[in-house]
What does this fold into?
Amino acid sequence: PTKFYYIFSLHDISRIIQSLLQTIPERFLRVWLHECIRIFFDHFNDIKDNELFNKILQNIIDNKSLLRSHRNYLFRKPILFSDYRTILQNDEPKIYEDLQDYHAIKSIFDEIILEYKDKYGYIDIVLFNDALEHLTRIYRVLRLDRGHLLLIGTGGSGKKLLAKIAGFTAKCQIFEIQLTRNYNEISFREDLKILFYQIGLKNIKTVLF
It folds into this structure.
């Protein structure tokens, strides 16, 4: 296929159901919309594909009287759900909830980044709205069992830093291969041994760079 990353399967449908099972019935419609956007829309890299997807979603909602009555609520921006609101309070339950607005999301990540700096050192990042959306997307995948994702973009756009922060938020350990002048295949194999021991025998959730 010309767009190999557009291939979907029943596994993607199961992800939608998995998220629905983590919320309450009152939020089902908006969670369903959010998961469709995350699982299908986020794969697209063509404006025409995005427009077609939005049109299909709107037709589904407009053709169902029950859904149509909630149209404004369903499409209220931003459409972002996550469970990291209480991530820093270990004794608090994590609820998959509507994050409401960017200001609330930024306040949460400001605290998370302070914790990250205490553990890993200083980082320089500006949490504009797109960055907050990407952080939430990455975190959403990393929190899932066997979650994985491919970040595509130009060098220096912040993919690595956002993935590190999202991994830290998801309680993952950061494992980064440090390339040096003398780094070779033997060094790579040694790093893999450490990594496999960490994720295989110790069962530590890990983000690999």
